[in-house]
Amino acid sequence: MPSFVSLFSGFSQHTEHVRTSDTLKEERVRLLYSNLPSSVGISALLLVLIIFVFNSVIAHERLYGWSALLGVVLFGRALFHLYWKKYRSGAAKQLDWLFWFRLGAIITGVLWGVGGVVLTPQESLSHKIYISFAVGGLSAGAAITMAVDRVCVNSYLFSVLVPHIVFLLTVGDKMSLGMATMMTLFLLFLLPSAKQLRLQFEENCNLRHQAIESALRFRQMLESSPIAARIADAETNQVLFANSSYMTLIDTTPDQILSIVTTAYYPNTDVYADMMRKLCHGKQVTNELVELCSPDGNSWVKWVLASYIAVEYENKSAVLGWFYDITDRKIMEEEVEKMAYYDVLTGLPNRSLFFDRLKQALIKADREKRLVGLLFLDLDKFKPVNDQYGHHVGDVLLKAVSERICGCLRRKTDSVARIGGDEFVILLPTLATIEDGVKIGEKIREELNQPFVVDGKTLDVSSSIGMSVYPTHADDEHDLIKTADIAMYYAKADGRNRINVYYEAMVR
Fold this sequence. Notes:
Blueprint: H1 13-34, H2 36-54, H3 60-87, H4 94-118, H5 125-145, H6 150-171, H7 174-213, H8 215-224, E1 228-233, E2 239-242, H9 244-249, H10 254-257, H11 269-280, E3 285-293, E4 301-313, E5 316-325, H12 327-341, H13 351-368, E6 371-380, H14 382-389, H15 391-407, E7 415-418, E8 423-431, H16 434-449, E9 452-454, E10 457-459, E11 462-470, H17 477-493, E12 498-501
Parallel strand pairs: 11-12
Antiparallel strand pairs: 1-2, 1-5, 3-4, 4-5, 6-8, 6-11, 7-8, 9-10
GO molecular function, one term: catalytic activity
Organism: Desulfuromonas acetoxidans (strain DSM 684 / 11070)
Protein name: Diguanylate cyclase with PAS/PAC sensor
């Protein structure tokens, strides 16, 4: 971080460095231990969920043995937090507190890393995905709560993610390799993100330290800071001072800045009011994810990590706010989330997002006493095309099939998802009659009967479609998919290129 010492006469460089270093050390320890209860609580809750979910697929000796070890470590870390709250005073003890925190974090990370290996059944894709999401979620949380300490966050991330990545690579199947690649990319994304948060924390800590010295030094420091910062009246929210970075952030000029009311840039004023209430009660507001927008709500929208502190400025009660622009990172996170819920090849919702939509559709159907239709579609003669012309042609064909299916759906509530290689499901959440669903299925089947032209080659495929209706044929989303799948296999057995509606006599 650039030194501000040259701005302040009367203080030696060595003295300022020592003060800043001690303050940074104390603040780092405080933030780490302050975040510890939520981290331990979430880890404990996830541990309970894992025991519940994996109880039937993992040997009890392995599952409960690992759970017991992790539970003991989490309990120990909780005790350390209580001990720290009681005996945390004293700058000389900060290194000791930091050492014990790091040790606890590393042991916890190693145990989660071991869990990512020993609790991942190779034969169950859903449990494999569950563990991947679990270790990924823990890592994402750690990248925020431990970001202020490089040793903690890096050790934890590598301990949790690397064993799971290596395990997925050793499994060797296509899905595992894909998941390993995504987890590796996720790790490479978290490391620099955590570093940026740590750098911001260090800068913010120095800003706070210098603010205590005097109002003049405070202002000079803010003016030279690369972080967007402003001071606003605690009662009127009118800006009293803002640096050039803040003016750039909100797209204003020095002539206009002092007439600005800060709340005009918060689309959700309740969020801002809640943060100010926390300040009034003496609580810290640090690194809050906040949305900012132009006063007209149309020109721009930005996402920042915002921190606030109550200060005295020009004999007024004021609030210092500083903002780290993470708009680009927010966009990247949204893209990563899209990769988690959408099929990369076709852009259609994947199995995870489809299940969520299906659950919501059934809840709404129960409330409104409606039918929900599900079409389970499997392409006929796709494998010969793939084998003869290669995966590239097969991929292009799948995209074209997706487009044709989507083109057959006229209602905004209808949706299609790709859940397997050449398997698609179509959700009809506002079905009036079973016959209406059959008509839509027939329309799709006839559309897919038309030849496809890919790379100059004319390809003929067809589709076998099974249909099931809630609550006529199924009691929940799992049964609905299962019965539609059964009906689809009967359609294949009956000669393919047809649609079958599920009935009770079909063998499950």
